[in-house]
């Protein structure tokens, strides 16, 4: 029986779910962290493990890569390797890929015992004894990272699967094996950016709280969050460019729209919680935390869009000047209309005028120096 990457695997006996559970346990991390590693919605992983949802072939392929186990073993085939059908499986490109990708070189994978001629399938020793994988390990995350980079550079609708495959040094069939279509790729890229941003926020707040000066001060935590959202570094700009595509796609796609709603709910809740703590500490005025968080996050979004647009406009202007050599426009694009410093200063001014209590001193110059946020 052949399965395409988007097919859901029948698992009425729960055997596939049990094998996946073993892989998750062997990874030495939480179920949510494992879901992040395989670029999967944690709730979908949870439902699949509990038997209320079936895994797709692509999801099992990513789980096999992350757990360093054989996809055929996860599928319950009689062979140690998930085996493809078709001539491309024997090609040099397929041989260079990982075992699970080589099995998917034609975009299909079989769980049929009759199609497998390799040794009996058993759980590799890595399932029961292995070092926990780093989140960056595996082909799926390489695909997602390259997708994020290409979306940031060219926009989602200009990026082809062939472009992603070329960036990863893989075949298009291998890409489809892990992510059946462009929609799944965008969702995975967005989810990865969301997870990275959430993890960075948590780290930044923890570091701010651990500092000697202003330890636990909500005003300091909020400044750190604002610095984190200011697109200074290449990574920050790349993520913001992906967000811009997300906003456009969220209006057209139900799946992406749900991700958008979930992400902003989490983000606004984080900001509201910091404001709420600041009110309790006496460093912020007695304002409505949720409404204040809504206003502040909207301001962040608008300013970040201006920073990115200004930077792109400045590059275009500079390029035109270099080509034309016109002296009367020299320096016109040297400084964007709205730069990262302008954005951060405007955000601090908003906090100062709308949130800070009169007893709280204004942020010093040292608070502005946070370029390496991600």
How do the helices and strands line up, and which of them pair or pack?
Blueprint: E1 2-4, H1 15-26, H2 31-37, H3 42-50, H4 57-67, H5 71-75, H6 92-96, H7 99-102, E2 108-110, H8 139-154, H9 161-168, H10 172-178, H11 182-210, H12 218-229, H13 234-250, H14 254-281, H15 289-324, H16 340-354
Antiparallel strand pairs: 1-2
Keywords: DNA-binding, Repressor, Transcription, Transcription regulation
Protein name: TetR family transcriptional regulator C-terminal domain-containing protein
Biased composition (Low complexity): 105-129, 318-334
Kindly list the characteristics that best describe this protein.
single chain; 374 residues; mainly alpha; two-stranded antiparallel sheet; disordered C terminus
The number of strands is 2
Largest sheet: 2 strands, antiparallel
> Which word captures the global form?
globular
Taking all Cα atoms into account, the compactness measure Rg is 24 Å
SSE order, as H and E? Answer: EHHHHHHHEHHHHHHHHH
Percentage of residues in helical conformation: 55-70%
Average pLDDT, rounded to a whole number, is: 73
Beta-sheet strand percentage? under 5%
Q: How would you classify the helix and strand content by structural class?
A: mainly alpha
Q: Which ranges are low-confidence, i.e. pLDDT below 50, for 5 or more consecutive residues?
A: 80-137, 326-334, 362-374
């Amino acid at each position: 029986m052949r399965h395409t990457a988007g097919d859901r695997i029948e698992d009425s006996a729960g055997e596939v779910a049990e094998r996946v559970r073993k892989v998750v346990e062997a990874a030495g991390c939480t179920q949510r962290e494992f879901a992040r590693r395989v670029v999967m919605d944690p709730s979908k992983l949870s439902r699949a493990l509990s038997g209320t949802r079936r895994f797709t072939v692509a999801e099992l392929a990513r789980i096999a890569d992350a757990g360093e186990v054989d996809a055929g073993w996860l599928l319950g085939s009689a062979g140690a390797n998930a085996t493809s059908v078709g001539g491309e499986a024997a090609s040099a490109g397929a041989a260079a890929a990982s075992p699970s990708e080589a099995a998917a070189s034609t975009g299909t994978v079989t769980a049929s015992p009759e199609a497998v001629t390799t040794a009996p399938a058993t759980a590799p020793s890595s399932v029961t004894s292995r070092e926990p994988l780093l989140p960056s390990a595996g082909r799926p995350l390489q695909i997602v990272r390259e997708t994020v980079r290409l979306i940031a550079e060219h926009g989602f609708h200009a990026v082809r699967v062939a472009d992603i495959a070329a960036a990863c040094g893989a075949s298009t069939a291998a890409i489809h094996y892990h992510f059946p279509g462009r929609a799944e790729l965008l969702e995975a890229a967005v989810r990865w950016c969301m997870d990275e941003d959430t993890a960075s926020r948590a780290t930044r707040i923890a570091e701010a709280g651990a500092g000697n000066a202003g330890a636990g001060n909500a005003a300091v935590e909020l400044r750190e969050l604002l610095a984190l959202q200011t697109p200074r570094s290449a990574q920050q700009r790349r993520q913001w460019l992906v967000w811009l595509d997300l906003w456009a796609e969220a209006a057209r796609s139900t799946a992406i729209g749900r991700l958008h709603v979930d992400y902003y709910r989490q983000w606004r809740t984080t900001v509201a919680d910091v404001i709420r703590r600041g009110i309790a500490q006496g460093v912020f005025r007695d304002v409505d935390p949720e409404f204040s968080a809504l206003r502040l996050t909207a301001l962040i979004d608008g300013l970040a869009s201006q920073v990115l647009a200004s930077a792109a406009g400045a590059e275009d202007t500079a390029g035109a000047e270099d080509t034309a050599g016109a002296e009367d426009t020299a320096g016109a694009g040297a400084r964007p209309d709205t730069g990262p410093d302008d954005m951060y200063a405007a955000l601090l001014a908003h906090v100062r005028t709308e949130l800070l209590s009169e007893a709280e001193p204004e942020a010093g110059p040292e608070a502005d120096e946070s370029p390496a946020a991600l």
